[in-house]
Amino acid sequence: NYLTYFEIGRAELMRDLGFPYSAFESDGYSLVVTEANAKYHSNVGYDTLITVKTKISDLRLVRVSFKYEIVDEQYGLLVSGYTVHACINSDSKPMRIPPELRKIMEENLKS
Predict the structure, then answer these.
(1) Which residues lie below 8 Å from residue 9, measured CB to CB, with a gap of 6+?
(2) Minimum mean pLDDT among 17-21, 49-53, 81-85, 87-91: which range?
(3) What single-letter DSSP state applies at residue 43?
(4) Could you give the CA distance from residue 57 to residue 54 in angstroms, rounded to a whole number?
(5) DSSP state, 98?
(6) Quick check: 41 and 77 in contact, CB under 8 A?
(7) Which domains does the chain have, with CATH numbers?
(8) What whole-number distance in Å separates Cα of residue 36 and Cα of residue 104?
């Protein structure tokens, strides 16, 4: 399932940015998926070593979008897609993305 690869790529990006998903939950908020899209370009065969490229593509007050490319050296782009997430608090109510996270996301968005 390509969305699982997207999830792994997103989790790794957030960990690299210093905000693993476990930190979200301990701080009382989470990023829930509100929209997902995957476009198939070529087959991902068994035993294919792939790379999941993930970056932040849009940032709003409550929402953030991630863009993904699943690639391999031999065939190039295999799958592309995006997900949109809403930031919610522990009561499942929408909330603004916390300032410290927003700052790091803005820096990634520019790169």
Answers:
(1) 52, 53, 54, 66, 68
(2) 17-21
(3) -
(4) 9
(5) P
(6) yes
(7) 2-110 (3.10.129.10)
(8) 23
pTM, full prediction: 0.92
The amino acid occupying position 94 is: P
Q: For residue range 12-65, list pLDDT tens digits in order.
A: 999 999 989 888 888 899 999 999 999 999 987 788 899 999 999 999 999 999
* H helix runs in 1-111, sequence order: 2-16, 21-26, 99-110
- The sign one gets for the Cα dihedral 47, 56, 67, 32 is positive
Are the C-beta atoms of 70 and 50 separated by less than 8 Å?
yes
What is the phi/psi pair of residue 77, to 5°?
-70, 120
Q: Are 14 and 64 in contact (CB under 8 A)?
A: no
